[in-house]
Structures are given as C-alpha cells and as structure tokens.
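Worked problem 6 (solution included).
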Amino acid sequence: MALKDTINSINQAQDFLNQNNPLDADKRNQFKNDGFMLPSTFSADGNGLPYTKVSSFNAGQIKRNIITWFIPEFGIVRMYVNPQSIVYTHKKAISKERTKGGFTLQYWGEDLSTLNISGNTGSSGIEGINMLYEIYRAEQYAFDGVGLTLAANNAAADLSGNLINGIGGALGGLVSTSPAGPASGAGLLGGILGMNSPQNTLSAQNIPSLAQLAFSVEMYYGGCVYRGYFDNMNITESADNFLWQYQITFVVTQKRGYRTNYFPFHRTPAQGPSQYGTPSSFNLDDIKDIIF
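Solution. The predicted structure is:
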C-alpha cells in the first residue's frame, strides 16, 4: 500500500503541474506532435537488440514532421521547410599503430556523430537564410544580453562602492580612534551588506559562457533530440533557379529518443526478410480511409 500511495502522490503532483501549465490543451498536443515528447527508448537485453522490441500494427496518424530547433536564451525556432537531405555520419574512435609484431589497436568508444544538413529555403528566400544563419551563430546574439547585464551590474557596483566608502568613512570617524578608522568603518558596513570590501564588484554569478551557449543547441526531429553545436555553414546563391542553397554541419554530443517507422507502407524488420505476411508497422485498416 505504501508504494501505491507514493505513486498516487506522484500522479497527483504531475496532474497539478499539468493543470497549472500555461500551455492550453491544443498547444500541449502540438508540443507533443513536434517531437518534444520522446517515445520510449528501447534497450538491448539477452533476448535481442533494441529494434526487436518495437511493436507492429501501431495506430497510424497524419503528422507533419518539421525540424525544430531549441536555441538557448531564445527558445523554439521551427524550420520553414525541411532540408532536402540529412547525412548522418557515425564513427568509432579507434587508433592503430604498426609494430614489429603487427598492428596494435586501441578502442576509445564512439566518436561524435555529425549531421550534414543541406537543402534550400524555398519561397522564404534570403530571409530563410537569415533565420538559419542567426540560428547558426545564436550564441553571439545571446551573449549580447549577458554583456549588458554585466555592464549594468558593474555600474551598480561602482555606485554602491562609492556610497559605502562615503558612509563607512563617516561611521569610521565616529567609532574609531586610529588613523585607519574610515577604512574600518567602510569594511564593517561592507561586511554587513554582504561585500568583502568596498572595491568588490557585483558581477552576475554563474553567467553562461559563449561555449555553454554554443554547445547547448538542440534539434528535434522524428522522435529524436540531437544536442550539440554547429561546426560550419555554407551558403550558395544560384542564378539558375534563384534559390538559396545551404549546407550545415551539426556535431552531436548527445542523442535522445528512438526513431520508428512513419509511412503506411513501412513494415517491421524484426520478423526477418521481407515476404508476404510480414507484419506492417501500422494497422492499415485504421488509416486506409485517410491515407489511400
């Protein structure tokens, strides 16, 4: 009963959070459809690889998968149109060295994966390129606000320091009989106000660095979240079709989620080679009226 009560308490707390979420029901559903709510992550066990755990004959639905970016300090940015191609490059970090006795291999695990994203901005033209370029260098824009905050805090610190020095000097002159009286009074007042000394600045603590902002970009697509950073971006302006082409390299430092099939004709590979009667990924009887 204790475990049941604990689970009920957790559910009640979650219901309370859901009810007080500023997003309404439609926005919450859109939030899920955009891929921010990840599917179950399957894991390997003694009975097979993760892909064998994916069920077949799932309920189908009409859904538009659009790449969505999460940019630190700015929030969510959705693509105007999906790229024409994404090349997923995976590599293992293995070093090899030739010796007299043969090759010596050292296995360091998996290297960072890269996504080579390329396409054109369609009818959004140069403004679509502007959006992508600003996503690419968003840490520079985000740090502008950090710089302004630091400048404001330092200006306030100078004002506070001058005020403390003035009041502390007067206080020290009243309570001290030594030549160091004014300094002692300022130090006492600064200690009361939480400053080590009147000369200390009040810079913001734990401010994000450029590296932190650059390395915290996330891409949501097809049930997966890719966290990482942009390595390079190439832009091509073409006079043949007046389209703006782009190519972006995104280095992945963390991947979450699990992609599953999404077309009505997809079939599960868990049953072996494709043949008549291979289970479908979706229940076609449920979606044939809206798909076919």
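Discussion: Residues 174-186, 191-204 have pLDDT under 50 and may be disordered.
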